[in-house]
Design brief:
This protein is of the alpha+beta class.
């Protein structure tokens, strides 16, 4: 929202000191789009997303152009990360690696899992194994983030469904799923990001 954007912008610009200056090139509300990524590419900047996600085109362009998109849901984490980067103390961090995306086409109620999303896997693969996480995105906004509790193909319980196939997805302890929502599956990979 605009209020969050203004508070975050003010907080970051006040962090400037004699040695390092924080410069905000652009701020806005809504999902991170392709023009945001192109601006970051031209300016050699990073993108900070606060409770928002890049749309599919933006994510693809960012990956191709090596633009760093940092996503946060707690304002203090943004401030802490930027302070560490400014002082050169940024420790190895985690980078989100998208595994797959599915579009919710129908919803069903079950006694065991509550709301199940009837989905078409549109990109990559949907999996519920290991450290994978899933998020529910509605109109470019993150609505929920958690684990997939149920992944089914027809009546079979499966561990993975690939692009182009239909499946049923149920989140652990979450039922507010609507037709048109997107489900993104990702894993956090540890990487060292240079601070220079």
């Amino acid at each position: 929202m605009q209020g969050s954007s203004e508070v975050l912008g003010d907080t970051l610009t006040k962090m400037s000191d004699d040695k390092v200056k924080v410069r905000i090139i652009h701020s806005g509300v809504g999902a991170i789009n392709e023009s945001d990524v192109l601006l970051a590419t031209a300016s050699n900047a990073i993108i900070i997303g606060f409770n928002v996600r890049p749309d599919r085109n933006a994510a693809d362009v960012a990956e191709r152009e090596n633009v760093d998109i940092r996503q946060h849901s707690v304002i203090y984490n943004v401030v802490d990360e930027m302070k560490k980067a400014m002082t050169g103390l940024l420790e190895p961090t985690y980078r989100e690696v998208r595994i797959g995306t599915a579009e919710v086409r129908e919803t069903f109620r079950t006694p065991k899992f509550g709301t199940i999303a009837g989905c078409m896997v549109t990109d990559g693969r949907i999996t519920r194994s290991g450290d994978t996480q899933a998020r529910l995105v509605r109109d470019g906004q993150v609505v929920h983030e958690g684990k997939i509790g149920s992944l089914r193909r027809f009546k079979d319980d499966v561990s993975e469904v690939r692009s182009g196939f239909e499946c049923g997805i149920g989140f652990e302890k979450y039922n507010d799923i609507k037709v048109g929502d997107m489900i993104e599956v990702f894993v956090n990979e540890r990487v060292a990001i240079p601070t220079a």
